[in-house]
Amino acid sequence: MADNPLQAEIELTTAEEPTPAYVLPVTPEAAWPHHSVLLLFTLLWGGNFVLAEVALREMAPISFSVARFLMGGGAMFAILYLQARSEASKNGAGIQLFPSIDRSHWPRLLLVSVLGATLAPWLGIEGLGLTNGARASLWLALGPVLSVGIGALMRTERIGKMGILGVVLAGLGAVVLAADGFNPEQAGYWRGDVLLFVALLMAVGELHLIKPLAATYGATPMVAARTAIGGLLYVLVASPSLVEQTWLTFGVWTWIAILAGGAIGIGLGQWVKVRALDTLGPTRVVLYGNLVPVAALVLAWLALGAAPSMLEIVAAVLIILGAVCLELLDAYKHPTDATTEASL
Questions:
Q1: Alpha-helix residue ranges (DSSP H) falling in the chain
Q2: What is the pLDDT of residues 257-271, one digit of tens each?
Q3: pTM confidence score
């Protein structure tokens, strides 16, 4: 690692070799297990929104978010330990969970931690408390569109004509979703929509900021470090609410939402995404996130009787069509330049 901070930043932003997004390094036979697992987790992620809506009937939003986040962090550290133990066994060395991080890279890691592990989950769960799980998952489907915009500003991504069409379609879907939030029968939804949008913007921005860190030090250690730093701050912020909660009175489904939703949906789910990146490529992995709205709408309808409104259905169709145009029809024709500047 370079001693010069400027040189270290240059090495950080150029650590990842450019890989054309349209190149698939494996055969379909090798890829289908990853597709199967991601499809399973799409249902779990959709169910996570439904379970969260149930849990928020008994818990303060920030208490639920922190409890679930701690479960996800525990699962992530378990994965990190198992990986480090496996590497130590192969190399005949001691277990090292985290690499030595250059001093000049700590500001970026701290910013990533606050955005992704403190503010984004905090604002997201507060927004969910003002709306419903199905609508919240629809906002998440805008993630790829926001990612392209941030990538264009940071010069880490470019799109073609089909991608522009996808942005327009997804933007129309967001307008329809926002318009539904002003429905007099759903008063207050627009406040939740604003918080969810800001939380999503932070979460997507975090991905672009953590990308060079992950390329330099490894994805799993950086995600675990960011979870530990941001999670500690999140616990401090939420401590008054955590103390006031009557934990022993919660129902079974609330505990399932905390334990299973946190450890499996958040912790293990993140590991599944990272594990599939090398085989499928990031675009195809992210595309599964856009199936979550459909899963959440169907599960909310079946479990809670919350039938989606016509505007929600239209919004879902537009957002998902936009994501398909942007990520499937466009991204595999226009390679992403992964070596361009992404500095703070």
A1: 5-13, 28-55, 61-91, 106-114, 120-129, 133-140, 143-153, 161-181, 189-217, 219-244, 252-260, 269-280, 282-289, 292-304, 310-323
A2: 898 888 887 777 777
A3: 0.69
